[in-house]
Amino acid sequence: MRARARTLLAVLLSAALLSGCGSGGGSEAPGDSQDSQDAAAASTPSQTPPSEATAPPEEAPATTGTPEVLRFTGKTVDGKDFDGATLAGKPTVLWFWAPWCPKCRAQAAETAKVAADFSGRANVVGVAGLDRNDSMRDFVAQTRSGTFPHVSDEAGEVWKRFKVTQQSVYVILDKDGKETYSGVLPGGKGLAEKVGKLVG
């Protein structure tokens, strides 16, 4: 009789222990249906690292209103970032030169003068190509033309964009990015007049 009572007591104790530990093990606790698990997951904050969860989407460059022809970027001969979109809204002179070109060297002084005379009203940008950046930087220093930016176009990407096939060429754009002139101006003569007509 005592053996039966002990066995019955042991069974009851085991049942009580199992019902108390059920939610901590691998078995599903009462009321934990798939729906309630999904709802709990939805209310739990994401475990995504904060840097990923809060990082704003990468912004695209502001090109609205920028003429297609000015949608280019690069580096200047002194290593600064350059964005062609900053030229929009004003007449622009793009001077395509090479460091070893004597005609380009002869144009440097007049181009720098035009850049100074029309500062704030028109853009003047040198686009150096057909050589290495070290030579381009030396040219700018030797000709004292560092008063306006010079894009280092070693790969020739900007030259291709404007269909320039030889050095010593000026490409002049109006404030809307429309080309008004493309060609050689020996010594830079006539450049000031062409820009003057565009700034009014």
UniProtKB/TrEMBL annotation:
Gene3D superfamilies: Glutaredoxin (3.40.30.10)
Residues covered by the Thioredoxin domain: 49-200
InterPro entries assigned: AhpC/TSA, Thioredoxin-like_sf, Thioredoxin_domain, Thioredoxin_ResA/DsbE_sf
Disordered: annotated segments: 22-69
Compositionally biased residues, Low complexity: 29-67
Record's signal peptide: 1-24
Pfam families on file: AhpC-TSA
Key words of the record: Signal
Coiled-coil ranges (or none): none
UniProt xrefs under PROSITE patterns: PROKAR_LIPOPROTEIN, THIOREDOXIN_2
Record's protein name: Redoxin domain-containing protein
Organism, as annotated: Streptomyces chengmaiensis
